[in-house]
Amino acid sequence: MLAGRLGKALLLTAAVAVSTAGAASAAEKIKVGALRLASHAPSFIAFERGYFADQGLDVEFEYFQAAQPMAVAIASGDVDFGITAISGGLINLAEKGAVKVIGGALSEEEGIPGQKILVSKKAYEEGVTAPSFLKGHSFGITQTGSSFHYMAHKIAEKEGIPASEIPLKPLQKVGAVIGALKSGQIDAWAIVPNIAETLVQSGEVMEIGQVADYIPGYQVTTVFTSAKIASENKDLVKRFLAAFSKGAADFNAALVDKSAGEDEAEAVLQLIHKYVSADQPFEKVAPAIRSGAMRINGDAALNLESVKDQLAWFQSEKMVSDTITIDMLVDPSFVETY
User: The pTM is what?
Assistant: First the structure.
């Protein structure tokens, strides 16, 4: 009798072990596009804390240095999900039925430090001490049709400066823009606060304004995937967004709302540092990440009105077709929109 029970127990243990091993091996492999910026922290947190694994996802990161190449990678199927700014390239791919925006990520929010408008020390000394003095001065962007292009024109529009009178300098990569600004090869740029603060601290760059004063409520980055995944694998999208949202909640609680306590803030900063400026000492990087933390939308909610404004601007600049609609660009069925 005892031997029989023992045998059954051993068989049950073996079955559980096999089942667990099978579940682990069945984790769905996906690639997630990212930039090594603090604004991508929710993905890093979700990975490090097992939130993706909890959703049955085996994540591999694919790193990019600009938004448009990530959109191309999503469309080609080389990457499954991306988190980055809306670009002309992304919109054109959406019109072709290749990609869909499925949620929101980084956003400008009143009362929280947001993206900074910067100028080189040389330009500042020449009198560019406020955005109103940008006329005739160069502005760095990664590519034509990037979010930097959009910001430059929105700043010019509000200041009453013809967009053509702020020369744009496409430099392809964020690192190249940073180098050009520090050396005075370009006059101005706008970027997330943790990078901006590090540059200002170098003494070679000056802050002259905030993007939020020119684009209130700006949905800076969005979550997107291929149109095929959005339509044919909705469960995968839901699982990805659930894990990403959990990472965003940790980030916001630790560094934006500061409701999680100092120990948690320190833990989150240590985690982010593994992916952001890992070649620099933690003591140097952490203060800028902490003070420059921007809101990541809870539950990946999407500011649809901001996305509509961005689409309208790209159309006004003739970078995308007038025939593309917001429904071609966005699938609003996965998250709350406002």
Answer: 0.86
Taking alpha carbons only, the member of 121, 151, 124 closest to residue 139 is 151
Question: In this structure, what is the dihedral angle of CA atoms 36, 54, 75, 313, given to the nearest 10 degrees?
Answer: -60
- Condensed to tens digits (0 to 9), the pLDDT of residues 204-248 reads 999 999 999 999 999 999 999 999 999 999 999 999 999 999 999
Q: Domain ranges for the chain, please list them.
A: 10-107+219-329, 116-213
How do residues 114-164 score in pLDDT, each as one tens digit? 999 999 999 999 999 999 999 999 999 999 999 999 999 999 999 999 999
Instruction: List, in sequence order, every residue forming a beta bridge with 190; answer none if it has no partner.
Output: 117
Strands (E), the chain: 28-34, 57-63, 81-84, 99-104, 116-120, 139-141, 168-170, 188-191, 205-210, 222-226
Given a contact cutoff of 8 angstroms between Cβ atoms, the answer to whether 244 and 301 are in contact is no
> Quick one: pLDDT at residue 26?
80
Give tens-digit pLDDT for 136-146: 999 999 999 99
d(CA 222, CA 248): 13
Task: Assess contact for 139 and 166: CB atoms under 8 A.
Answer: yes
CATH, domain range 10-107+219-329: 3.40.190.10
Burial bucket for residue 251 (CB in 10 Å: 0-12, 13-18, 19+)? buried
**Structure confidence at residue 316 (pLDDT):** 95
d(CA 207, CA 239): 40
* pLDDT of the residue at 18: 41
CA distance linking residue 191 with residue 89, whole number of Å: 20
Superfamily of chain region 116-213: Periplasmic binding protein-like II (3.40.190.10)
